[in-house]
Amino acid sequence: MTYLTQDVPQKTGSPDLLPNDQARQAGPNKPTPSNRGWILGPWLDLLLISNVIWPLLVFFQHYDTLAGRMTIQFWQIYFITTPHRWSTLALVMLDRNPFRARPRFFIAFAAMVVSLCVGIYISTGALTCLLAIDYLWNAWHFAAQHHGIYRIYGRLSHAPSLLPGWTEKWLLRSFLLYCILRVAQVAIRPGALSDALSITDWIALALPGMILLDVLWNFNRQSLGRLTYLISVTGLFLGMLWAIHNGHPAILLALTTASAWFHASEYLAVVGWRLQKQNSDGTIHSRDAALKWIASRWAVSLLIFMVILGSCGWMLESHFLEYWLLLNVIAAFLHYGYDGVLWKKQSPKTPPVPETIGSSSSSRA
Q1: DSSP symbols for 39-85
Q2: Long-range own/partner contacts, residues 334-337 (CB < 8 A, 24 or more apart)
């Protein structure tokens, strides 16, 4: 997702048109002045991508009864996180353009993942090793996705930056990775190591702080979406560090649930944005009728997908827990690997120079 970009025109429509006329003329990929700097639009971005409601999720989990916490976790696991992982496989199956570009990779990677996961499960009789790999790979995936969406906002804002791209990338990713691995460390080996890392926690605060200062220094009217997203995502992970540092395991659990909700929600929202962009640009393959239908009805299609997959997941887990977990680990590994290809912006190939009438005539002669 790091490499996905969108070209945003500087001017949209005619100055003589009313705002509604400008919106109709602009179409889905040419933002009106009120939408510039946002991916879906201000309100949808705040709700689905920046997820500014995550403090409410933490509040309700921490102060509600056990039944209330279990309800939030139920919806998060089955109807948010699981569909977001499996949606990548749906994209690979329905969109033939990425598959045609690298068919050997998609087939070989799937075969390798399935063989590895099934082989480890059969040889050990447990999923412990696979779940450990999943946590580490998922940590990197979290960091990469959040940085990728932040970069989309950066390009949409057209704001300059004092930080080189690679510096910004590693500052944000390193901070997010540190927070996620710190959660695992507290759960596995609390004690003396936690005391030593509590000093590192203060150093980690400087990483997002440098990015925030850069955004504020170069702030413009189109940077509000980028600033909001940065504050929201770093605020969530700073909350994790605070809970670890001050010994609040219940709040930490609520924050980790909110982070999973945040991650899956933004992914599904950006997938919808990408499909709608492809549909309006005409870049969906002419034979991909199903993908075109889904792209033109994304909200309804996503809702149906989430309900079906979430319901099936809940029923399968109730009767075939280990096999369902194994399938989810396989889907997760494919999700992590395929995302790096699906979201990478392809370099446009130089089209062949057409022959002129004179050259065609001379060649035929």
Answers
A1: SS-HHHIIIIIS-TTHHHHHHHHHHS-HHHHHHHHHHHIIIIIHHHH
A2: 334/88, 334/89, 334/109, 334/110, 334/113, 335/85, 335/86, 335/88, 335/89, 335/141, 336/137, 336/138, 336/140, 336/141, 337/109, 337/113
Structure-block tokens of residue 282: 């005409």
User: Each residue of 75-113: pLDDT tens digit?
Assistant: 888 888 988 999 999 888 888 788 888 889 999 999 999
Please list the ranges in the chain whose pLDDT falls under 70: 1-34, 65-68, 190-192, 345-365
Joined together, the tokens standing for residue 359 give 């050259």
How crowded is residue 54: how many other Cβ atoms within 10 Å of its Cβ?
Answer: 22
Backbone angles phi, psi at 288, to 5 degrees: -85, 65
Q: How far apart are CA 268 and CA 320, in angstroms?
A: 27
pLDDT at position 359 is 36
Q: What is the DSSP secondary structure assignment for residue 13, as one 8-state letter?
A: S
| Domain assignments of the chain as residue spans, ordered by start | 45-344
109 exposed, middle or buried (CB, 10 Å; 0-12, 13-18, 19+)? middle
Indicate yes or no: pTM above 0.85.
no
Compute and round to an integer the Cα radius of gyration of the chain. 23
Distance (Å, whole) CA 230 – CA 225: 9
Instruction: Supply the pLDDT for residue 217.
Output: 95
Torsions phi, psi for 313 (to 5 deg): -60, -40
d(Cα 185, Cα 339) in Å, to the nearest integer? 27
* Residue 195, token pair as written in the block: 């005391």
User: SS3 of 5, please?
Assistant: coil
Q: What pLDDT, on the 0 to 100 scale, is given for residue 30?
A: 56
Q: How far apart are CA 153 and CA 229, in angstroms?
A: 8
Output phi, psi for 284, to 5 deg: -75, 135
The predicted pLDDT at position 12 comes to 38
Tokens of 178: 């540190």
Other Cβ atoms closer than 10 A to 240: 21
DSSP structure string for 311-329: HHHHHHHHH-HHHHHHHHH
